[in-house]
Amino acid sequence: MTERKRILITGAAGFLGSHLCDRFIKEDYHVIGMDNLITGDLRNIEHLFKLENFEFYNHDVSKFVYVPGELHYILHFASPASPIDYLKIPIQTLKVGSLGTHNLLGLARNKKARMLIASTSEVYGDPNINPQPEEYWGNVNPVGPRGVYDEAKRFQEAITMAYHTFHGLETRIVRIFNTYGPRMRLNDGRVLPAFIGQALRGEPLTMFGDGSQTRSFCYVDDLIEGIYRLLHSDYAQPVNIGNPDEITIKQFGEEIIKLTGTNQELISLPLPTDDPKQRRPDITKAKAILGWEPKVSRSEGLKITLEYFKSLPEHEINHKDFTYYNK
Ligand code: UDP
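Above: inputs. Below: predicted complex with uridine-5'-diphosphate.
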């Protein structure tokens, strides 16, 4: 039997981190999950604890990180990732993207591991061009409410690239566009869980602004496949992974109303500061370099996600306060 490859996944109890744990377990890796459980939830990885090739550390990666034994790969997915979360915990958001990334790059160097970081379409800010190719430098307000996330992620890309060029570390950068699926937090404030939660509770759907802003939603399985391929590629420059199927938030609300069959109305609330007006990934690079493109349509993905949200305990569906954290 060949030795299992060992991979550290930070943010392991979160939405994307937990799906990554599942994927690498399926590929017979030894998976070391790490999370401080501020926004993560152990229920997302509960099923893995019984496995001999899974272990978990409750640790904040903004502090010195050490893992005994060999490490072949590190995936850095620890970070609050919804506007509501990073407005509530702005300093932690800045620290995990900056100090946390620095610590993990040091660990990767020490272990001679390949490191992949989770970057974001937020590096493009409120983009002046649509769709956004990787060459676009973005339009970000550093001192606005989103600045804590956007600038942490931009710094994260910069320091990762510096370790690559200066230390010769093997690095990969994925720019993740809006992604959804089972294990999203129903109350993380993002538009998809917000709309589905409201529809299930029989409340009007809260559309911000006139709903003419656009997003492009990618189903989680497609995203995980793209990340898996990127990690195993030899490409160190950033790669967009997302679904280019763009929709206005108003149309999206109407889709959710139809999907849930709830007949709710859409009401308009003020648009948050610096809310991007348009967002759609240019995935030419992902197609050419990784042979990747999304396979799951929004209607298929939304059905699966709705079933997941409906399966949650009733008190969670009815809990609409965004202030709920695990600690
Ligand atoms: N949005 C909305 N109603 C909500 C939550 C969000 O209309 O209850 C809008 C938000 O203003 C943005 C879009 O939906 O234009 C996506 O917001 P989200 O917080 O999901 O993520 P973002 O893509 O802005 O990071």
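The domain at 6-179+218-241 is CATH 3.40.50.720 (Rossmann fold).
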